[in-house]
Write a structure and sequence with these properties.
Elements (H helix, E strand, L loop, with lengths): L11 H12 L10 E6 L5 E7 L7 E5 L9 H13 L2 E5 L20 H14 L4 E6 L1 H13 L9 E5 L5 H8 L2 H25 L6 H6 L3 H12 L5 H8 L12 E4 L22 E4 L20 H11 L9
Parallel strand pairs: 3-4, 3-5, 5-6, 6-7, 7-8
Antiparallel strand pairs: 1-2, 2-4
Helix pairs in contact: 2-10, 3-4, 8-9
């Protein structure tokens, strides 16, 4: 697979920002989903948005990124791709990301493989055809962690999976987001939605975390240290970023897996990306020089006209049983 960004979109930041901004101005409406609310094993809930495809065709499951949803630009692009293939499509929302705050004293995180596993098992039980999974950014890392924990058993749930723009080394990515332009733009954008959600969580469970320290956080390291890490069983940010990172255990994956990272991704420094010697035979690495973070724009023609769904969809298709192709 090869990719070269359009001449009018130079650099990783523009290749990251433009697709998300462009989607806001697309004339056609977004996907029409059916929403299901599932009760979780800990008596909380998640919302799953689905679109039915042709019976017997694959189900494509997308795990969104940090503060993403089924309306994120990449979700809309893959929803359109799935519709053209007559595949079913599902976007499970991580807790608190569907437009309504969740009930339990927790949220979601980059290593949330148990949640991913529970979701995939339930979808597997509901769908009669093949199943494929893909994750974007945070969702990609969590999906890779699930595949690592499952080992050979992952292939009993999905035929293949793809991880796109995964922050595969969380410490490296967190460091990159904590400096310069990234801190001023991307980190501020994330904290602008994460802090209000944390305040709602504190109102539900007064004293759950240090409210003032959370409000004072100016980067993801500080926010994770007071909120994400302790609420999800980690000692602190360093413990969370170390244990949740997918990179150290890529060699343990036993299901066909595509790991896509642009080398100019402002969230994920190129120096931290894995090489072929660090992954097992089930893992295919694609690390183009350009593409940004979940960008990979091809032309200005339409919101869907990006390389990401077409190239990734083609790779996933080749992993399907022959009768399920198309």
């Amino acid at each position: 697979m090869h990719y070269t960004a359009p001449w009018w979109l130079p650099g990783g930041n523009l290749q990251t920002i433009w697709p998300a901004l462009q989607m806001r101005h697309v004339a056609q409406p977004g996907p029409v989903y059916q929403r299901e609310r599932w009760t979780t094993p800990d008596a909380d809930f998640i919302d799953v948005d689905t679109r039915a495809g042709q019976p017997g065709k694959p189900l494509l499951v997308l795990f969104h990124g940090l503060e993403g949803s089924s309306q994120s630009h990449y979700a809309r692009a893959f929803a359109d791709y799935a519709a053209h293939q007559q595949w079913s499509f599902a976007v499970p929302h991580f807790r608190g990301c569907s437009g309504e705050i969740n009930l339990a004293p927790r949220a979601y995180h980059s290593g949330d493989f148990e949640e991913v596993g529970w979701i995939l098992q339930r979808l597997r039980a509901q769908h009669t055809g093949p199943m494929l999974a893909l994750g974007i950014s945070l969702g990609a890392n969590a999906l890779l962690r699930w595949a690592q924990e499952m080992g050979a058993q992952a292939a009993t749930v999905v035929q293949a999976l793809a991880a796109l723009s995964s922050p595969i080394d969380l410490a490296a990515g967190g460091g990159a987001l904590g400096r310069g332009f990234n801190r001023r733009v991307y980190t501020r954008m994330f904290l602008n939605t994460m802090k209000p959600k944390a305040l709602i969580k504190w109102a539900q469970f007064p004293g759950l975390f240090d409210r003032q320290a959370m409000l004072a956080a100016q980067d993801l390291y500080a926010f994770d240290n007071v909120f994400t890490a302790p609420l999800h069983g980690f000692r602190d940010t360093d413990d969370y970023w170390c244990r949740a990172s997918a990179k150290p255990r890529l060699h343990e994956i036993r299901v066909p897996t595509l790991v896509v990272n642009a080398r100019n991704d402002p969230f994920v420094p190129a120096w931290c990306l894995p090489n072929a010697a660090e992954v097992g035979p089930s893992v295919t690495l694609w690390q183009p020089a350009q593409g940004g973070h979940a960008g990979f724009v091809r032309t200005q023609a339409s919101a869907r006209d990006g390389l990401l769904p077409d190239a990734v969809g083609a790779w996933l298709t080749q992993c399907l049983p022959q009768a399920a192709h198309g």
